[in-house]
Amino acid sequence: MQAKEIKTGTVVVHNGDPLLMLAVQVQSPSARGAATLYKFRGRNLVTRQKVDLTLKGTDSLDMADFHKREVQVMYRDSEQIHLMDTENYNQYAMDLEDVGEQLLYLAEGLEGIRALIYNDACVGLDLPSSIEMNITQCDPAVKGNSATSRNKPATLETGLVVQVPEYIKEGERIKVDSRTGDFLSRA
């Protein structure tokens, strides 16, 4: 796959390991005849290290041989989260530190989670873009503050704190963008 075809979320092989592309920046040439450069920020899915790459548009990398499998969360202990494949019931375990910030979006009963399987091991999670969660703690709206669109913090069932509009109440179910952590709408 050529560098100009690589998008955010693509998994390629770099130095023998799978690399998940997190950000892509295109740098146009400043001189006539110069090549367009593509700067990539990625995460090595085996070592969990961040990697910066700069390639010309005609340089190429191989696609990683991995599978995306639909999984559901079975349980979480003090060190790992345990997942089960919904088709063949294989079980996978991931360290909590490897899951990172995605842990705040893993609500009980969440559907649409896909595991990235590389060499029969779960190396990452692909969450749905919007996730529905319940608000467990939220301050009440202050009367008279409705002239402008103001936001207030709301704590969700997983501990995630999101800024929501003033009209949202405790106990409501909302949709949250799993990529940015922003409030989308009521569920």
Written overview of the protein:
- By secondary structure, this protein is an all-beta fold.
- It folds into 3 domains: 3-63, SH3 type barrels; 67-126, OB fold (Dihydrolipoamide Acetyltransferase, E2P) (Beta Barrel), CATH 2.40.50; 130-186, Nucleic acid-binding proteins (OB fold (Dihydrolipoamide Acetyltransferase, E2P)), CATH 2.40.50.140.
- It has 1 helix and 15 strands.
- The strands form 3 sheets. Strands 4-3-2-1-5 form a 5-stranded antiparallel β-sheet, with no helix packed on it. The chain has a 5-stranded antiparallel β-sheet with strand order 8-7-6-9-10.
- It starts with 10 loop residues before the first strand and ends with a strand.
The spatial strand order of the largest sheet comes to: 4-3-2-1-5
Shape, principal axes of CA atoms = flat
Order of helices and strands: EEEEEEEEHEEEEEEE
In angstroms, what is the radius of gyration? 20 Å
Highest-level CATH class of the largest domain: Mainly Beta
**Cα end-to-end separation:** 39 Å
- Strand-residue proportion: over 45%
Q: Enumerate how many helices there are, as a single number.
A: 1
CATH topology of the largest domain: SH3 type barrels
For the largest beta-sheet, the strand count, sense and barrel status come to: 5 strands, antiparallel
Q: Average pLDDT value?
A: 85
Number-wise, the strands total 15
Query: Share of helix among residues?
Result: under 10%
